[in-house]
Amino acid sequence: MSKILKGKILLAEPFAEDAHFARSCIILCEHNEQGSLGFIMNKPIDIEIESLFTEFPDFDANVMYGGPVATNTLQYIHNVGDLLENSVEVIPGLFWGGDFEKLKFLIESELIKPHNIKFFLGYSGWTTGQLEEELNRGSWIISEMDTNYAFKESKKPLWKRILEVKGSNYTVIAQIPEFTSLN
């Protein structure tokens, strides 16, 4: 079994029934002895970022559902860590958070474009040992993160694309229809 590390992706097993996590792809931004934290990268919410804040620059970026914990909080991952102070490097080329006022300034200055950042309402979190238990039950498949998964658009659904890249038996799993009761 792959080791859980910050910067890995968790892919929900194909028959997950929890609506929060069905076919989800979660980037783990933190994993330590206190627990784990990540964001669902493939569940868009029909809301634009500037509608959440009264003093946010006009910015054509949608918001994603990050997970069921603290859905009244805004988080973000980006690829401009060298410009945004207090960002946490998750993997090379992928950063989490940073100074929010500076973020607004960089957006107004057009130094950050929508393809540089992904916003999330809420997050996915696990207490100490919880994620390990879920992995042992087969709830998640661990995969490598590629920054293209976060910032590049694709016609193919992300969950399916990552499984196909993982190869071997995962290519077969990727072909399982989402609604098997319709077969």
Category from helices, strands and their pairing? alpha+beta
Helix content: 10-25%
How many H/I helices?
5
Q: State the order of secondary-structure elements, H for helix, E for strand.
A: EEEEEEEEHEHEHHH
Q: What proportion of the residues form beta strands (DSSP E)?
A: 25-35%
Whole-number mean pLDDT: 93
Describe the largest sheet.
Answer: 10 strands, mixed
- What is the gyration radius calculated from CA atoms? 17 Å
- What is the total domain count? 1
The counted number of beta strands is: 10
Q: Give the terminus-to-terminus CA distance.
A: 31 Å
Low-confidence regions: none
Reported CATH architecture: 3-Layer(aba) Sandwich
CATH superfamily: VC0467-like
Shape, principal axes of CA atoms: globular
User: Tell me, what is the CATH class?
Assistant: Alpha Beta
**CATH topology, anyone?**
VC0467-like
Labels describing this entry:
single chain, 183 residues, alpha+beta, VC0467-like, ten-stranded mixed sheet, 5 helices, 10 strands, 20% helix
TL;DR?
This protein is α+β, with helices and mostly antiparallel strands. It is built from 5 helices and 10 strands; from the N terminus they run ββββββββαβαβααα.
Describe the structure.
The chain is globular. Helices cover 20% and strands 32% of the residues. The protein has helices spanning 100-108, 130-136, 147-151, 158-166, 169-174, and strands at residues 9-12, 25-32, 35-40, 44-48, 62-65, 69-78, 88-91, 94-96, 117-127, 140-143. It is an alpha+beta fold. It has a single domain (9-176), classed as VC0467-like (3-Layer(aba) Sandwich). Strands 1, 2, 3, 4, 5, 6, 7, 8, 9 and 10 form a ten-stranded mixed beta sheet that branches. The longest helix has 9 residues, at 100-108. A hairpin with a 2-residue loop joins strand 7 (88-91) and strand 8 (94-96).
